[in-house]
Amino acid sequence: MSEPRRKLVTGLTWISIVLFVVLVVVVMWQVFTRQVLQAPSAWTTTFSQYLFIWLVLFAVAMVFGERGHVAVDFFARLMPRPAQRITNIRAQVSVLAFALLGLTWGGLRGMAISWDQAIPGLPVTVGQMYLALPIAGVLMALFALEDLVRAARGEDMLAGDDAQTEAAIDAAEQKGA
C-alpha cells in the first residue's frame, strides 16, 4: 500500500471511529430521554439516521482503501494471467465509474436539489447532509484509480488475508533460500 493511501485509510479509520462514538452517544441520549425522562429528544432520531449514513459511507471508503471489501475472484484466479489482468482492469473501471457517476455526480446533484431543504430540529440542510456522498465517491474513485493503474501494470492486487498470506509465503521463501 502506498504511503498516501495508507495515510488516507488511517484518516478514514479515525473519522469512522469518531462517527461511531458520536452515533452511540446520540442513540444512548435518545434512549435516556425517552425511557428515563419520558420526554424524547426531538433531534436525536433524525441526527442518528444521517450520522449512520455518514458512518457507512466513510467506513465503506476506508474498507475499500484497505482492499478489505468482498471480492469474488474465485473464477478470475482460475483464468490465465492475461485474462486475470483484463478482468481486474474491467472491475476497477466499473468501480471507478460507480464512484464517479453514482456517488460523486449523483451526490452533487442530490446536494444541489436539496441544498436549501431544512431538516427539522437540526441546524443543517438536507443538501449539507448529502455532502458525504460526493466526498466518499471521490475517495473511492482515488482508490479505484490507483488500483486501476496497478492492474494495468499487471501488479498483483490480492485483497485482505490473501495479501497477508502472500507476504508471509514470500518472506518464508526468502528466509529459506
TrEMBL record:
<comment type="similarity">
    <text>Belongs to the TRAP transporter small permease family.</text>
</comment>
<feature type="transmembrane region" description="Helical">
    <location>
        <begin position="128"/>
        <end position="145"/>
    </location>
</feature>
<protein>
    <submittedName>
        <fullName>TRAP-type C4-dicarboxylate transport system permease small subunit</fullName>
    </submittedName>
</protein>
<dbReference type="InterPro" id="IPR055348">
    <property type="entry name" value="DctQ"/>
</dbReference>
<dbReference type="Pfam" id="PF04290">
    <property type="entry name" value="DctQ"/>
</dbReference>
<feature type="domain" description="Tripartite ATP-independent periplasmic transporters DctQ component">
    <location>
        <begin position="23"/>
        <end position="153"/>
    </location>
</feature>
<keyword id="KW-0813">Transport</keyword>
<keyword id="KW-0472">Membrane</keyword>
<keyword id="KW-0997">Cell inner membrane</keyword>
<keyword id="KW-1003">Cell membrane</keyword>
<feature type="transmembrane region" description="Helical">
    <location>
        <begin position="88"/>
        <end position="108"/>
    </location>
</feature>
<dbReference type="InterPro" id="IPR007387">
    <property type="entry name" value="TRAP_DctQ"/>
</dbReference>
<feature type="transmembrane region" description="Helical">
    <location>
        <begin position="52"/>
        <end position="76"/>
    </location>
</feature>
<feature type="transmembrane region" description="Helical">
    <location>
        <begin position="12"/>
        <end position="32"/>
    </location>
</feature>
<dbReference type="GO" id="GO:0015740">
    <property type="term" value="P:C4-dicarboxylate transport"/>
</dbReference>
<keyword id="KW-1133">Transmembrane helix</keyword>
<dbReference type="GO" id="GO:0022857">
    <property type="term" value="F:transmembrane transporter activity"/>
</dbReference>
<dbReference type="GO" id="GO:0005886">
    <property type="term" value="C:plasma membrane"/>
</dbReference>
<keyword id="KW-0812">Transmembrane</keyword>
